Amino acid sequence: MNIGTASEKSGLPAKTIRYYEDIGLLRPDRAGNGYRDYSMSDVHRLRFLQRSRSLGFSVEECRQLLSLYGDKERESADVKAIAEIKLVEIDRKLAELTELRNTLRHLVHNCHGDDRPDCPIIDGLSGKATQ
Amino acid sequence: MNIGTASEKSGLPAKTIRYYEDIGLLRPDRAGNGYRDYSMSDVHRLRFLQRSRSLGFSVEECRQLLSLYGDKERESADVKAIAEIKLVEIDRKLAELTELRNTLRHLVHNCHGDDRPDCPIIDGLSGKATQ
DNA sequence: ATAAGGCTTCCAGTAACTGGAAACTCAAGG
DNA sequence: CCTTGAGTTTCCAGTTACTGGAAGCCTTAT
């Protein structure tokens, strides 16, 4: 499939997809006319990249994560070690994200939604209490 | 407190803290000697920025999120509306992160951890199945 | 008094895109 | 068949969000 379709399916702009190829994150085939030709496997890599980038992993971390799935040469012990390190990071992110959500949810539920600017959360988070 | 202490407490490099001031994300006091003087409230903003940036929110999104807590002038209806939009985003991120974790966890538990490179997950995620 | 370490500003460099120009390819309409 | 418009190519320049380094001031410890 062409880059436009891969872009739709992955949620990444075509520009970004070409950039990822430049830095060696994937290597799609080329059709006879010179157009890039993406397989479903490429699209999966791209979706994975879209997701992990949007979750705050650096490109290099994404490269490492991708290698967990893609690199058949890598030894299982390696895969397991790297995956375990990343798991810790992911769990930390999950905890932070959950906390952020709870705060916002509390904000939504406790605010009047009218004109009065006296949300109960605001003071707590602005640091008043702890100062 | 000085920028070094604020850096320790927030987990952000001093460089980044100055940069955030440049782009108007906080406005610490200045001591008599010209040094920046951070309050606990500043540190909370910084910790909030550290967290939300590491979770994949752009600086502009962080600015918007910060305004939910900080801007006493903003009307409650506004706060509620913005918070609800961000909640949807956060829930999506949570779902994606959970999925990523489950995949990695499965990888860790099902791999032998020895030399044999035959993790059961690898094929599924590399796109073989769906191709 | 001097040395070390932290702070200041400023300017340049990096990471990860993003936009735009000029040219080629392809599918559809006249 | 020709054209027109949309999609693709490469290349080069610009943007965002930092990050590193130089040069100089401030502070504390010997």
UniProtKB/TrEMBL annotation, chains A, B:
Main localization (coarse): cytoplasm
Gene Ontology molecular function terms on file: copper ion binding; DNA binding; DNA-binding transcription factor activity
Boundaries of every HTH merR-type domain copy: 1-68
GO biological process: positive regulation of DNA-templated transcription
Chain segments annotated as coiled-coil in the UniProt record: 80-110
Pfam families, per the entry: MerR (PF00376), MerR-DNA-bind (PF09278)
Protein name as catalogued: Cu(I)-responsive transcriptional regulator
SMART domains to which the protein is assigned, alphabetical: HTH_MERR (SM00422)
GO cellular component terms attached to this protein's record: cytoplasm
Localization: Cytoplasm
Keyword vocabulary terms for this entry: Coiled coil, Cytoplasm, DNA-binding, Transcription, Transcription regulation
InterPro entries noted in UniProt: CueR (IPR011789), DNA-bd_dom_put_sf (IPR009061), MerR-type_HTH_dom (IPR000551), MerR_fam (IPR047057), Tscrpt_reg_MerR_DNA-bd (IPR015358)
Highest taxon of the lineage: Bacteria
Species this protein is from: Aminobacter aganoensis
